[in-house]
Amino acid sequence: MQIPIEHAPGEFVEVDLDPEVLSHICSAPLFRDALADAFTLRCRVPDVWRYTVHVKGGQILPLVPVAEPSILSNYPDRPAADAAGSETILLILASPHKDEYVRKPNGQLAPKAPAQSRNWLGAGRAIHSYGHDVLGKLGLDNGEYSLVIANPVPYQCSLSSVGPGRPAPLDRSVRDHVWRQLFSLKFVQEDFLDRCMRYRPRIVLNCCTTELQTELTDFIYENFVRTAGPGITLFESEHPSVHWSSSYKVKAGIPVYHVNLPDRIRSLR
After folding, report:
1. Of 16, 195, 250, 259, which residue is 20 to 30 A from 222 by alpha carbon distance?
2. Is the Cβ–Cβ distance between 145 and 91 less than 8 Å?
3. What is the pLDDT of residue 218?
4. Is residue 232 situated within a structural domain?
5. What's the domain count of the chain?
């Protein structure tokens, strides 16, 4: 099934999606049109700058919101571009899900921001509640950092909000298939790398979903860390949604790994 993806105003490329995989959530005749609508520029979820991180005496202080929550986000977000020129920590997720969108009265899907869920197992609440603990494991030098949150694929890959009605439950096989197909597109990869270059993070924390994390880490290392110059450190952790809250609840701690790609070494922090 060929679905158009808008990469510039009025400019499209097609992505090949397996109709058998998509049939896990919908096989209605109008589903293809709904997919094409969800992959337009107006449905891209933008990256955000959410918190300022202060480190003093080797200790991380409570995260400081950079704005007030608004109708555009459940959290204190500013455009990621506003963090330009600062020491940046880039927290990478995967792609937007149902909480990252709202449906307008006219039925159109409208994006909000990354990590929007306020549920105790949601990614937004987990970053707000446990981000201090996770970032404290990165070995940050004393100073001030901007925490930017980004999705490598800014379109909804779970397709949970595609079509009429209430959002559908997450089907991981659909999400992973759509994510891989979209991320294989040259313009999606180039757009992600362009954003990384603009933010110029000192730390990259890959919190992509488990099924996709290794391939994304390899891509980030080969195409950004190795080429953007020295001084970038790459880490992995679990996706904040469910995992951070669950790990913290059982007092096992949220695992953070320093990744040394040339030797394929992941050292627990």
Report:
1. 16
2. no
3. 93
4. yes
5. 1
123 within domain boundaries: yes
pTM: 0.94
Q: Quick check: is 178 in a domain?
A: no
* pLDDT tens digits for range 41-67: 999 999 999 999 999 998 999 999 998
Q: Confirm whether 242 is domain-assigned.
A: yes
pLDDT in tens, 232-266: 999 999 999 988 887 665 556 889 999 986 665 66
Could you tell me the residue range of the domain that residue 76 belongs to?
A: 46-153+186-268
